[in-house]
Design a protein that fits this description.
Strand content: 15-25%
Number of helices: 11
Helix content: 40-55%
CATH class of the largest domain: Alpha Beta
Order of helices and strands: EEEHHEHEHEEEHHHHEHEHH
Radius of gyration: 20 Å
Number of strands: 10
Largest sheet: 5 strands, mixed
CATH superfamily of the largest domain: ATPase, nucleotide binding domain
CATH architecture of the largest domain: 2-Layer Sandwich
Shape: globular
Bound molecules: 5'-O-[(R)-(carboxyoxy)(hydroxy)phosphoryl]adenosine
Number of domains: 2
Distance between the termini: 34 Å
CATH topology of the largest domain: Nucleotidyltransferase, domain 5
Length: 330
């Protein structure tokens, strides 16, 4: 019988300090998340320097709580997996320095994890039977891309946003129409009361790329020109056009690759309208997977899961690993 492998995940790329313990890449033993939403709400968005300072304060108590909840000691862990990009550089450095210190002091392998790979791995924690290859619609605050997941550690980006990430557009619209921060969940809730879908302009490309900035501007202009326009309708219209674009592109990616398994990932995959729209795609052999809601947004369990597969592949980092704010998947 094979020995169980326990990975410790550390995530600090934005405004969540999170540490988790995962068994064999699939079973969450703990996933402690300290969110700074209340702090950044005061400023209407994430203030990078404040995020870094809070990570420094939180990282040790969050780590101790994660090992306590997993009923494990740090010595029992097989590898220390830490996000090293993409994200806010100061925020990343806190988790990375902490991970390196643990790796050195405990004499355990250090595994650098790409945050986007982590979001994709959230699906492995939700669906124990899920295996690559599949397509992943990755939608977060900093990235929007269609990823061909060829294997656990082998990725090809088939299409990506040419301007705003979809989450960034959600957050900007929420701020301009007065819903506040964090924008995505607020737009999601208000859109449920929307009754009319306003037709919005779409940009088409001859490949699988996306654009969200024109739609964002169209919504903002509608609001500015007619402040009485129903905000719920605006939110619903934005979600409707985004869903159309995402689905058009994923259908094209399915046609191009012949891969009919599609996973969602990233914070925006928590959006109820988008989740419903993707579920409607399930026919003709197309299967849709989406992470549990609590695993859509930033958390360390997804980093511990992705790190497990890097570890199995022998993809060990050394202590010179640096934070890479613009790290790409390929
Ligand atoms: O994946 P995530 O937690 O952080 C990044 O890696 O970027 O994604 C955060 C983004 C934010 O833009 C947030 O507004 C958006 O995900 N988001 C949502 C929802 N929940 C979070 N967007 C739309 N609907 C939601 N329910």
């Amino acid at each position: 019988m094979q020995k169980d492998i326990y990975t410790l995940g550390i995530e600090s790329s934005c405004d969540e300090t999170s540490v988790a313990v995962v068994k064999n890449g699939r079973e969450i033993l703990s996933n402690v998340i300290n969110t700074q939403i209340a702090i950044h709400t005061l400023y209407g968005g994430v203030v990078p320097e404040i995020a870094s300072r809070n990570h420094i304060e939180n990282i040790t108590p969050v780590t101790l709580e994660a090992t306590k909840q997993a009923n494990i000691t740090l010595q029992d862990v097989d590898a220390i997996c830490v996000t090293y990009g993409p994200g806010l550089v100061g925020a990343l450095l806190v988790g990375l320095a902490y991970g390196k210190a643990l790796s050195f002091a405990l004499n355990k392998p250090l595994i650098g994890v790409n945050h986007i790979q982590g979001h994709i791995a959230a699906n492995y924690l939700t669906y124990k039977e899920l295996k690559p290859p599949f397509l992943c619609m990755m939608m977060s605050g900093g990235n929007t891309q269609i990823v061909y997941v060829k294997d656990y550690t082998n990725f090809e980006v088939l299409g990506k946003t040419r301007d705003d990430a979809i989450g960034e557009a959600f957050d900007k619209i929420a701020r301009v129409i007065g819903l506040g921060y964090p924008g995505g969940p607020k737009v999601d809730n208000l859109a449920k009361n929307g009754e009319n879908v306003i037709k919005l302009p779409k940009t088409h490309f001859d490949n699988l790329d996306f654009s969200f900035s024109g739609i964002k501007t169209a919504i903002i202009n509608l609001h500015h020109k007619n402040p009485d326009i129903d905000k719920a309708d605006l939110c619903k219209s934005f979600e409707a056009v985004c869903s159309e674009i995402l689905i058009e592109n994923i259908k094209q990616a399915i046609k191009q690759t012949g891969i009919k398994t599609v996973c969602l990932a990233g914070g925006v995959s928590a959006n109820s309208y988008i989740r419903d729209a993707f579920l409607k795609l399930q026919n003709n052999g197309i299967k849709i997977y989406m992470p549990d809601l609590k695993l859509c947004t930033d958390n360390a369990a997804m980093i511990a899961s992705a790190g497990y597969y890097n570890f199995i592949d022998g993809n060990i980092s050394d202590l010179s690993l640096n934070a890479k704010p613009d790290l790409k998947l390929e």
